[in-house]
Amino acid sequence: MEMELGVFFFNFVILVFAALSAREVEAAVRYYEWSVDYAFVSLDCVEKLAMAINGQIPGPRVDAVEGDTVVVKLTNNLPTEGVVIHWHGIRQFGTPYYDGAASASQCPINSGETFTYTFVVDQAGTYFYHGHFGMQRSAGLYGSIIVSLPANKVEPFHYDEEISLLLSDWWHKSMYEQELGLHSIPPRYVGEPQSLLIEGRGKYNCSLDECSSFHYNCTVDECSTSPDCIPCWPSNPECDPHVIPVHPGKTYRLRLANVASLSALNFILEGHTMTVVMADGHYIEPFEVSNLDIYSGQSYCVLFNANRNPSRNYWAAINVRGRDPTTPTGLAIVQYLPNSANLLPPSPAPVSPAWNDFAASTAQARKYVPRPGLHTEHRYGKVVPKRAAGRTLILLLTQNKIDGYIKWAVNNVSFVPPATPLLAAFKFNLKKISSPPDTPPNFDVSALPAATANINASYGSGAYVFKLGETVDVIIQNGHNLNPDDSDLHPWHLHGHHFWVLGYGNGKFDSRRHSKSFNLINPPLRNTVPVFPFGWSAIRFVADNPGVWPFHCHIEEHFAMGMGVMFAEGVHQLPKLPPPTLGCGLTKPTHL
Ligand SMILES: *[C@@H]1O[C@H](CO)[C@@H](O)[C@H](O)[C@H]1NC(C)=O
Ligand SMILES: *[C@@H]1O[C@H](CO)[C@@H](O)[C@H](O)[C@H]1NC(C)=O
Ligand SMILES: *[C@@H]1O[C@H](CO)[C@@H](O)[C@H](O)[C@H]1NC(C)=O
Ligand SMILES: *[C@@H]1O[C@H](CO)[C@@H](O)[C@H](O)[C@H]1NC(C)=O
Ligand SMILES: [Cu+2]
């Protein structure tokens, strides 16, 4: 144990020193101690088993200033399972082993163990963290990371105060039932969420008692004497709507992030226009919206002025996009002070554009362009390489079967998380790691994607290996589900990088025709990009961050069913791995 602490301390000192010398501004250390536990929660009034950090869902908010070092000492108090936390949008330059992705960057933190994450937040913006082992994010393991500008820098827009909101979806079945259901024959899909949550609050109608298991006005005490009863109690303060107090006339910066398991969301601030100013931590040319699409894994900053009739309150609302919704609108209350928080807005729940209006969604996705001249002093401010990439991957997304199980596959390979974290496997050369195909087998531009006779795919746990500094283009090509007429929307997220979005298109990607349409003038930098049904999305990044970085669909269920790949870069320049990140699979001491 002493030895482990020594290693942590060593890394810690190096990091703070590096941050100081690079920026010549005093960087602080933000220290957190967290305990991960199971908890009975009633976020939408219906009680269920979930995972909480320090008893909270969302977990504690991480607040830091650009250049600070965040230290999170995490104790796993889950009695029977491991845990990891991923810091979504933080690139972990020099610390790939603290990225918090099971099977990629570290071994799961075992039950009863304490592990300390130490990393620099090098770019101001709105980020979040979440569980990245199995489907732990959908169990409630998530929270906000807010990185502010240091005192010597100013935002390129004005606001008086700021508010952060995590948006998500919620099921009454536990994560375990959901996961086992997906891995069953026939599959038991999780279905649409029962509720949508804003800052971990929703409101299920307790009278909708499909299976007579929970009852209106049934408290925990009453249920304890009735074995088939699940508490659902609408006046339970735990499921009171989240309240956003505002002062009339002031301008607010709203930090939004979608941490949903499944749902693409559309956010509305009733009666208020929003000006979008930041996407995934990058300043963008401001534009106004009345409703904002936000895909799982994405974050935005929007400004609004509390300039409406102050005698009433208003709804903040989220609706499902991209899937035929059966889930009611998720609602929070914008409280115009000094009105009471209990003053319900007099209007019905705000309505979003039709769930399948993909033309509207694509048009909004295309509106994001970077705000020029900002952040140029930083590593992330560098311009997009204009020359053709050294390596181009075309990743075809299909739904397949393996031994009768329904899976998602990328170029016919369905990802299975390996027991040995790939970072350690490369670092110590522990095993032969397979390379999945760069392009889909039998990819013919004249045919529709994945019109394959053989619906069977294969399992894989390999990685794409890139040379350090190589420019990489990835075309994510949507195919179809087992039903050939059906294609889902998939938000794709890359760890360790922010990538340039070069373009979106419908149908099949034709490199000769479509690469000419790439935006190489001012493509936006992001870490999560939607891939629309039967469409493609093209991204570019530079493989300049030695590590192993998951690139995957941010839908929890899809990644659990194999929809992801691993990118390994600079594998001969990997840093020393802290011993506490090891200990599983082939990294057991007997193998080293
Ligand atoms: C809740 O569901 C019941 C039964 O379907 C319905 O009568 C009632 O109007 C619903 N309440 C609300 C607030 O939607
Ligand atoms: C639930 O309890 C509240 C408070 O005791 C009561 O006002 C309400 O009528 C009850 N609703 C039902 C459907 O029993
Ligand atoms: C797919 O795999 C199943 C066994 O899991 C097998 O019965 C079937 O023949 C395979 N299909 C093809 C086209 O190979
Ligand atoms: C996909 O993988 C399966 C199982 O290994 C194989 O039978 C099939 O031919 C592959 N399909 C293509 C297009 O390579
Ligand atoms: Cu997906």
What does this structure look like?
- There is one protein chain.
- This protein is mainly β.
- The protein has three domains: 131 residues, Cupredoxins -  blue copper proteins (Immunoglobulin-like), CATH 2.60.40; 162 residues, Cupredoxins -  blue copper proteins (Immunoglobulin-like), CATH 2.60.40.420; 191 residues, Immunoglobulin-like (Sandwich), CATH 2.60.40.420.
- 10% of the residues lie in helices and 35% in strands.
- It contains seven helices and 34 strands.
- The strands form eight sheets. Strands 10-9-14-19-16-17 form a six-stranded mixed sheet, with no helix packed on it. Strands 23-22-27-32-29-30 form a six-stranded mixed sheet, with no helix packed on it. A five-stranded mixed sheet has the order 13-21-20-15-18.
- The N terminus is likely disordered.
- It binds 2-acetamido-2-deoxy-beta-D-glucopyranose (4 copies) and copper (II) ion.
- The site of one 2-acetamido-2-deoxy-beta-D-glucopyranose has 8 residues, from loops.
- The site of one 2-acetamido-2-deoxy-beta-D-glucopyranose has 3 residues, from loops.
